[in-house]
Structure formats: structure tokens, C-alpha cells
Backbone:
């Protein structure tokens, strides 16, 4: 069953918004990095004494799904993306078919008002091979 | 220090959106009720195995802050609203001055992109008077 994971909002200047959410609202910056697929960047924030996650989404101005403010997407984690995507798109149009992004498999649908819903399956890491002493230094 | 508390999104049909988020995305409806101040209504939802809170905000079409989709506001809980509001509005314009709503004191500012930030202080309930047996049944 999908689990609501975080809220992503559009920002037009990532540094400025990180400053606002950390310095003025006291949130902690957990992660910041580029998103190759979009040419944009994201930051993850959380308040002390809260489990709520906020993602800031910055996109280049020519990115087709970009925006300057407002909701970007609501993210839900799922155990099996293909299964969830197939089930959810029985009664509504799928928007972006499942694809791989780093250690996630992602797909997008929309809610009844057109808000983007990201479905994400965390891919299991390949189990590391047991190292043998003689090959460790290669 | 403010604590990120939930995300509120605009919906144009509260029943339809509750159906989508509960039946299709498997969230649990925690609360639903009217908001006297706006003439609208809200619903609160959470997924099993997640602490993230989602609020659905429905407004009458003539409500000045209403909207049909997208972000309504990001809510932060604070310990002392007047103090937080005063501090935060030193460097930016306040939008809605502190006011009382039920068991909360609320105030609104905006982030650098104009997204609404709700600051809310949970008001302490008046301590109940010790009841004496002879007055209990009135």
C-alpha cells in the first residue's frame, strides 16, 4: 500500500528558499543535490521534533514540468511500482510511465484535481560480494 | 522553533478527493469537518506506516484565498505565535495577523515564492475544575 512520503514544492531560487526554510523557519537541510533527468536540483528539509519531510524542487526555466511556486508533487513510497502503477491507472490516466532514477523506480499519476502524485519504489541495493583478502586492494 | 506539521492542498470536490486518497492511495481519513471562518471544509489523511500528514482544503468559490488545485499552505506548529510572527515578519511582510480559530492561534506569512506558511499555536485547554459530586448531574 502506498505511504505518503513527502511534499515537494516549486521554488524559483534554491539557495534563497533553503535560507528561508533553515534560517527563518529553523528546518534542517538533510540533503541537496542535482537531478540529472531534469537539469534541476532538489533539497530535503525537516524540522526538529517533526517527521514531516519537505522537498524543494528547482527546475531550469525550459523544463516542461517546471514551475515557480506552489505544489510540485506529493510523493508516495510503494513496495512494487509496476503493480501500484497498473492498479492506479485502471481508473485514471497514467502520466509518466515507470522509469529508473538512481536507486528509485518512479512513476507519476495525477489526483482528481490534476495534482501530481509521484509513486516511488526504493530499489534494493545489489548485495555486496564477500571480499577475499587477496583481491581487496585492486 | 517552528515544526513542519502538515501540507494542505486545494481540492475542488472534497468527497471525490477523499475517495481518491483513501480508496486508491490507501490513506486513512483521520478527521473531516467544516471551517466556519472560510465557509469551507477540510479533511486530514495519513498513510499507514507514515507520519506525514496531508490536509485537503475545500473552499467556496467566492472565498478570496480559495483555489481549485495545487498547494494551499505548509503548516508549522509554534510554541508562541506572537513571538514567532513578530520575529518572522521582521524580514518579510506578514500576510494575516494572528487570530484565534477554535483551539488554535494562527497567523500567515509567505515564503520567498509566495507560498503560504501557516503558523499555529495550539492553545492550552482551560484546566477543568474539580467536580463535586453534587453538581455532576446538572
Residues:
Amino acid at each position: 500500500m502506498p505511504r505518503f512520503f513527502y511534499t515537494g514544492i516549486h521554488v524559483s531560487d534554491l539557495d534563497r528558499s533553503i535560507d528561508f526554510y533553515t534560517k527563518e523557519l529553523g528546518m534542517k537541510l538533510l540533503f541537496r543535490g542535482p537531478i540529472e533527468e531534469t537539469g534541476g536540483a532538489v533539497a530535503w528539509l525537516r524540522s526538529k521534533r517533526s517527521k514531516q519531510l519537505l522537498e524543494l524542487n528547482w527546475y531550469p526555466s525550459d523544463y516542461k514540468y517546471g514551475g515557480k511556486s506552489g505544489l510540485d508533487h506529493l510523493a508516495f513510497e510503494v513496495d512494487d511500482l509496476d503493480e501500484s502503477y497498473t492498479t492506479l491507472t485502471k481508473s485514471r490516466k497514467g502520466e509518466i510511465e515507470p522509469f529508473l532514477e538512481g536507486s528509485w523506480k518512479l512513476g507519476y499519476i495525477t489526483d482528481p484535481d490534476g495534482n501530481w502524485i509521484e509513486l516511488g519504489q526504493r530499489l534494493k541495493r545489489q548485495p555486496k560480494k564477500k571480499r577475499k583478502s587477496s583481491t581487496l586492494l585492486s
